[in-house]
Amino acid sequence: MDVRGTPAYRAGDAEEGGAEAGDRAVGPDGDLPAGHRCWCAGHRRSPLVLSSAHSGTLLPARFLATVRVEAAQLHALSDGPVDRLLGFAREDGITLVTGVYGRAVIDLNRRASELFPALLQSPEKRGLDVSPKVRAGLGLIPTRVGGVDIYARRLSDAEVAWRRDHIHAPFHAALEECAAANVATHGQSLLLDCHSMPSAVAGPPHRRIDAVLGDLHGRSAAPGLTARAAAVLRDLGLRVALNDPYAGGHITERHGRPAIGRSALQIELRRDLFMDERTHRLTAGADALSRALRSLVLQLEKVLLEGCAGRGVQAPFETGEPLPVVDAA
Asked: What's the DSSP call for residue 309?
């Protein structure tokens, strides 16, 4: 198996637009980095938190030793460089939490119990949630990519525990801590969980959806926040859908508790707006989409700071003619 001759492989390391300088050197597995990065602004605290769970690319050696496919094939499971669309966060004083490891290693947007029994050496010891996503090979530990089985053997309890304890649990703990701090400071918090979707699922080319907002059908975010987000994106020229085909995953489910001031909203961005879907390299459209996201974030921040998130700001979804798509040039 070709893993570039290194103790761990990071998709994009040898390509333009790959990992940042200083972020590539990975020692023995005992020296592996934490499972997430968290950038917090020291000069101010925004009531918003941004997350990009599926932009990580690191595939550690202990993981690569268990798989039967080439490391580069696993690249297809990721969201691509969504985190780089959020580069404005630090400058604007907004906390950004991003995944470090590839989604193939562990999916941060799945419950810890969503595991495929046949992958485990001792499944009888676990209370597993064999959800439709798990059966499709997209559980906590993905088992298939491109119609091919990923693993050459079953995983031990220790192997699964390392991924959950070192990567999954700390990521969610960071989001919990950020939300608690925001509520303590502002009385409320909003997590904007950012993902990308294949262009093929966004509809026919002449009417493709550019962004899907997911609030678990009204359960994970205050109604005013979802409505305002849709209105802002439409004003920026994006076609927007709500909860279809993506209503939100474990991140919005776990961290979206609007009754106690903690909202979570998922956004799925159409990949061909900002990246080459084959290579995952950013395209010229990335700058325009990043600016649109910054406008969205600042508008949502304004809503939160004004304390009007629960006033039910109304913005009809999918009514009338859609606005033109943001120019990707």
From this structure: G
Rounded Cα gap, residues 194 and 99, in angstroms: 11
Q: Are 196 and 79 in contact (CB under 8 A)?
A: yes
Q: Quick one: pLDDT band at residue 201, thresholds 50, 70, 90?
A: confident
> Among 173, 201, 193, 222, which Cα is nearest to 293's?
193
- CA–CA gap between residue 48 and residue 89 (Å, rounded): 10
Q: Report cis status (omega within 30 of 0) of the bond before 205.
A: no
CA dihedral 195, 201, 206, 209 (to 10 degrees): -40
Domain boundaries, the chain: 35-311
Q: Name the pLDDT band for 22 (thresholds 50, 70, 90).
A: very low
Beta pairing class for 95-99 and 48-52: parallel
> What class does CATH assign to 35-311?
alpha beta
Interatomic CA distance for residues 137 and 116, integer angstroms: 8
What is the per-residue pLDDT for 316?
A: 27
- DSSP H helices in the chain: 61-64, 82-85, 88-91, 132-135, 157-163, 169-186, 223-235, 250-255, 285-306
Inter-residue contact 265 to 253 (CB < 8 Å)? no
Phi/psi for 206 (5° steps) reads -80, -10
User: How far, in Å, are 50, 182, 263, 269 from residue 47 at the CA level?
Assistant: 10, 5, 10, 22
Cβ neighbours of residue 93 closer than 8 Å, sequence gap 6 or more: 41, 43, 44, 45, 46
Quick one: DSSP state of residue 326?
P
Say if residue 321 is exposed, middle or buried (CB neighbours under 10 Å; 0-12, 13-18, 19+): exposed
Q: Is 327 or 73 the better-scoring residue by pLDDT?
A: 73
